[in-house]
Structures are given as C-alpha cells and as structure tokens.
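Handout, page 2. Input:
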Amino acid sequence: MKCNECYYGRYADVCLLTKQIIPVEDCSRFKEICCDCESEAEVIYRGYHYCIDCVMEQFDLEESTTISYYKDGEFLGDSDDMHEVIENLSSEIEFI
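Output:
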C-alpha cells in the first residue's frame, strides 16, 4: 500500500483523509483508485480496480427508472402503467 496510490493521497507526511501524520505502514484507510476515472475504486474486475460507474460501463448496462405516483399518501401506480395512474385519480376520467 502506497499513499501516492491511495484515493485520498498524501501531502508530505500528512494523510489528506485524516489530516494527521501517519506512517504508511499504519494506514488502515487505504483506498484504491479506479483505473478509468481516478475515483475511489470499489471493485476489482479482471485484475483492475474500478468504481461502480466504470465497471457498469464495462458491461454496457442500460439504466431504467420507474416513477411511483402518490396522492395524499395513497399509491396510484407507477410509470410502467400510466393508465392505472390516471384511472386511480378519479372515477370521472374516461379514456377516449
């Protein structure tokens, strides 16, 4: 483990995370750096350290978000079925 390879880094004898003088061999907070973007690495894939975003890019993942709709605390439905949401708003609404 080397401070100059740590995500937090070191300036002279001072750890930039703890703001204290800590001998390298006593550091228990060493964090690897992502090989693609230099963020804090969280995983190892094929021998390389990656942050979550970069390892997801390695697999060409697509992202999808579902929105839940509530009125006065009551669940009306989600964005996967907007007809359900509209129907739950009022019995006076008709689809044409």
